[in-house]
Amino acid sequence: MATVAQLEQALRASQQEAARYRQLLDHSGEVSWMIDCASGELTWLSQAALSQFGYTLETARPLAWDLAQELAPRLERYESGDLSRRRVLREIELPHADGHPVPVAIESTLMLDADGVPVSVLGVVRDLRERRALADQQKKFASMLSHEFRTPLSTIDGAVQRLEMTGTHHDEGTRKRYRKIQTAVDRMLAMLDEYLSPERMASIGRARQPDEISPANLLESVADAARARRARVDLHIGALPQWMRCDPAGIRLCLDILIDNAIKYTPADTPLALSGRMAPEGGVEFLVGDQGAGVPEAELDTIFGRGTRGANAAGVAGSGLGLYMARSIADVHGGTVSVRNVSESGAEFRIWLPAAAKPGKSLARVGSNSDNSSDTG
To answer: CATH class for domain 4-127?
Structure first.
């Protein structure tokens, strides 16, 4: 049998070992903690909690509540045989002492006695702010890089599509070169989406967003949204292709800008007109008409300039960038935005985009992601 002296010596050794572990934990950058399973009380909190969260063991009641709030159901599941509850990793937000939330990852383990009964929970808290900031920077960099490549590629793509549309007299060799350019652009755009898109980085395996849209559905959606701000928006949909290849969000923004402009510069009780059809010269045209005062003749050629505001803009909020953005979006797609005064009904803004001449024809392969290219022969 062990003597009293031996027991005392073993106790001192155990206490010294525990003290060394606590010193080690206190020098760690991670917040370590321990909660008693019976009382739910926080019995240990490392020094890192003060620098990261502003808490000490004595002032950590809010922190303890967040750490312990899932303890009871966790113990119930473990005792019912769910061994996955022995060790748990979760991401939540914990309150800092000054009140602001901090994103953290909490890893904790149930500590068992000799009979396998949980007696405490030991865990660590890892601050995720730096990791998330780095992830945000990576997404922003990928988005910037993707944009810098995508813009010139879309310009090339729109130009080739326009050449194909207007070059019906070209020989087969020339048209074949057009198709090769389109194929190369498609390949590079696909690589951008595969490796550089923020969506791809945020969620590997998420479906790629399509670069095509139904023009009729687009017009209906824009008109529905506009009716929340203007009681009457007349929609006229003529002969249109079933699909048109473009950046859907970009073309939607272009239309929204023109609608917003019409709402701001016309009386609230006057209707707006939105229409889409095949253009006389080929391609697709979207028209936004109003019954306002129109655009001064001297400004018809300058109103799309960056920062330009017309003579009738006094008292109307704006930055002078909306119409500039609309024209820039159309330019990237190989199209145009223009305006004319219609004597009987105010101003009419026109978006023209290159598209297939045959209404109802799909411009993209079934199941494909169209980037203003067509099938190769």
So the answer is: alpha beta
- Residues 169-208 pLDDT 10s: 777 788 788 878 877 777 777 666 655 555 554 543 333 4
Q: Contact, 247 vs 313, CB < 8 A?
A: no
Question: Which residues have CB under 8 Å from 56's CB, separation 6+?
Answer: 45, 49, 50
Residue 223 CB burial class (10 angstroms; 0-12, 13-18, ≥19): buried
Contact at 8 Å (CB) between 213 and 364?
no
Residue pair 45/89 in contact by the 8 Å Cβ criterion: no
Quote the CA–CA distance of 158 and 153 in Å, as a whole number: 9
Tally Cβ neighbours within 10 Å of residue 6.
Answer: 10
Instruction: Give domain limits for the chain.
Output: 4-127, 132-202, 212-353
Contact 305, 337 (CB under 8 A): no
Beta bridge partners of 44: 34
User: Which residue carries 């003579």 as its tokens?
Assistant: 311
> Does the predicted TM-score (pTM) go above 0.85?
no
Radius of gyration of the chain (CA): 33
- Any residues with CB less than 8 A from the CB of 95 and at least 6 apart, and which? 53, 62, 63, 66, 101, 102
Q: What pLDDT shows up at residue 203? A: 44
Residue 313 burial (10 A CB sphere; 0-12, 13-18, 19+): middle
Assign domain 212-353 to its CATH architecture. 2-Layer Sandwich (3.30)
